[in-house]
Amino acid sequence: MLCSLSKLKASNVCAVDGPIGKIKDFYFDEKNWIIRYMLIDSDGYLNRSNGFISTSSISNIDMGANRIQVNFSSNSIGKKHRSKKEVDQLTGQQKEKQHEIQFSDFFKRPSSWGLMDYPWVVGPQGVIYENIQGKNEIRLQSSQPNLPSYNQISKYQVHAVNAYLGHIKDILINDETWQFQFLEVAKGAWITSQSTLIPYDLIEQLNPEGMNIDVLTDRMMVSTAPIYDADNAPIFYFENILEHYKAYTQIKPAEIKRLELSNQ
Predict the structure, then answer these.
(1) Cα–Cα 20 to 30 A to 193, which of 71, 79, 108, 210?
(2) What confidence tens digit (pLDDT) does each residue in 180-194 have?
């Protein structure tokens, strides 16, 4: 299913024994454009502020009920759930594959980096655990690359070579892999703009300093792309947009055709 991150961000997160918080943000790996973690506000449920939960722990997404189900109990989180202070320390820092494997070796569990670099298990039942014994604690180094968040890039402009295209309005992801599929870009002025989609594999790089995303296409291609209406987009829209960018994108229409956009 194709899912909108802006809609998912408003979701409640429920463990098998009840609610544990609300989604505040998503953190992604910009090498593969895959969502790795959800940042949840668990205040009032677990007597803690914030915590990271791996997307590999998600068992169901119910857009109609505004709910994301995870496959562990609230009791399994306990004191091992990341605190607000720890989350703040993690913000803007990257868990690269080598670090993740070292982390998994310490806890004698599988790495979250599975086949094809998609997220698998992160700790028992998907919760990110810390070393509660206080020894051999795994720390992220400030010299590591940034781990961007949805909140961060939702404020970014979109640029082609020497051309302003618009600004990020939303991101559509595949809920099976949690990989980006399309950027929703609002063309023109913020108030009067119309939206279109750009396939994720046209992203060249993020520029945090300039607060923009560079894409491998040109202004004419974006300006002539089909207009996207999230509330009324027919399923063939995605095939049309891929046809429009067929000279640029490697995404095949058959890959998107089986995904159903949820607008509930």
Answers:
(1) 210
(2) 999 999 987 655 578
